Amino acid sequence: MKKALINDWYYVNGGAEKVIHSLNQIWDDFDHFALIDFLNENDRTFILNGKKAKTTFIQNLPTVKSNHRNFLQLFPFAIQQFNLREYEIILSSSSSIAKGVHTTKNQLHICYCHSPMRYAWDLQDQYLDDAGLKGLKRAYAIFVLNKIKKWDIANSHNVSFFIANSKCIAQRIKAIYNRDATVIYPPVDVDFFSLETQKEEYYFTASRMVSYKKIQLIVETFNELPHLQLIVAGDGTEFQKIQKIAKSNIRLVGFVDAMLLKKYMQKAKGFVFAAEEDFGIIPVEAQACGTPVIAFGKGGALETVLDNVTGVFFKEQNSNSLSKALHHFETLQFDPNTIRAHALQFSKERFEREIKSFVEEKHQKFYNQKG
Fold it and tell me: Is the pLDDT of residue 371 over 70?
């Protein structure tokens, strides 16, 4: 039984790549496909068991390694160049283009959907603003994105079954593609992010520093709360801008490895999470450490954080709302053991068990029906 695993791209080790890692723990005989593959060797060993993905012509275009989204208009054509006729099972892991890979009605295609492509559907204006596109360039980008939306809807019918990474995403899949989706939460390494009951007097946040992660919002809020200490981990395009505005109660530590990330997470008084994520693995990692979360109350966080039990929510993505949530947080007491117990339901073992059962059941029914 030949199996293909298609991911949008490989260039970082993020939440989607943790899903790929777990899929490779269940089945070690995938052939891998992606638009591009620029993983370093350490990440390749973790994510793909050392394998390389078969890539598209986009891999060889100039400047693609530094900004692959410059070639967005070519993505649909590129992903459909893969010839997958010999594969009995196709799994796609997609927040963008991978689910549009060409398959036939006689092949089982299961898509683990992290989100319908956000830069086309619900973050279009922010995507265009971040790219600095104005005038004719902006008009052309909107034209391209509208074409991709039509392509995205049309090719969603190539998927036999959708799995959503949260109830929030299942609702978006229904709204955009008019397809039902089974919810299987992504894997969190709750064994690595172990419990620490002794907390210190600082708050912590960690993320790639790009606009939708809202790290600037967190820093601006703590700038107005000089009695609270904040440590910020991560790098990205907004790092220097944020570094310039951070006051003395805020420490930016840049990129940190997994061991140091865990240490900061374990000892933090609270983990601050201001993004609207489809699921959001890192708040669950914090909770696995027994660390409560101050989270924006929208998206996946509503499914992973228990208000006033494992954390608190703020309602709007602005400093006033976050500041009020921090003041409320300061009045509460949290039990690290209760917080960790809640996080255990999102374990890697649970994800791998549920995915394996889903794929095997659908495979058996799919091919039995075809005789």
Answer: no
